Amino acid sequence: MYSEKGTRDFNIIPVEKFNQCISKKLGFGDWLELEEVEYIDPTNVKRNWELCRRKKKSKHDVDAIDIHAIIKNINSPQIILVVQYRPPVGKYCIEFPSGLIDPEESIEVAALRELREETGYTGKIQSISDPICYEPGLSSSMTRIVDVEVDLTNDSPTQNLEDDEWSLQVIKVPIESLYEKLQELQKQHSENLLIDSRLYTYAYGLHAAKDLLYCKANNNN
Ligand SMILES: [Mg+2]
């Protein structure tokens, strides 16, 4: 059952559902609420946690979508990213295009709308992920990753930004060298630029896979 001390094999993790209630409203603004929630753990201990929740509601099990917009129809595939100023960290961030789902929208419509507004591009949806949490120790906010193959017939993409997206710029980066390009950009602008954790993990995964798969291929020879 245990593969090493304290570590279980992945397929027998016990996960239980806990009834959780809001025990205190700690504060609120125009977009966000700060709450304290309460639940009883399996040993009957009452526990509390502080969290941040978005006020904007969607009918889905997630409140946002993140878009992997890939330009495939060229020799070296590229990914479309956005760079924007993020007041909570006081710096610009490189991120996937993303946004909140409007109350009556489907996931598909929200993804293509956000992609079009933020980057001017549109495309065809290839797949939609299960719900993914953003920062589960801090916030209830969740997303689905929508893979989009970009339509290249639109050769003059035009953004349609909201007022609070005043800083948003679009960049296209070759997927083959994504990890290295992100590192280059961060080195160039080290005082003022951060890489979003989801994007970093995606890029690092591609980078690490090259080594891991290369090792595997060599070991098999
Ligand atoms: Mg956005």
TrEMBL record:
It comes from Dentiscutata erythropus. Signal peptide: none annotated. CDD domains: NUDIX_ADPRase_Nudt5. Pfam families: NUDIX. One of its GO terms (molecular function) is ADP-ribose diphosphatase activity. PANTHER family: ADP-SUGAR PYROPHOSPHATASE (PTHR11839:SF1), UDP/ADP-SUGAR PYROPHOSPHATASE (PTHR11839). The keyword Phosphoprotein does not apply. This is 26184_t:CDS:1. Residues 58-195 form the Nudix hydrolase domain. One of its GO terms (biological process) is nucleoside phosphate metabolic process. Keywords: Hydrolase. InterPro entries: NUDIX_hydrolase-like_dom_sf (IPR015797), NUDIX_hydrolase_CS (IPR020084), NUDIX_hydrolase_dom (IPR000086).
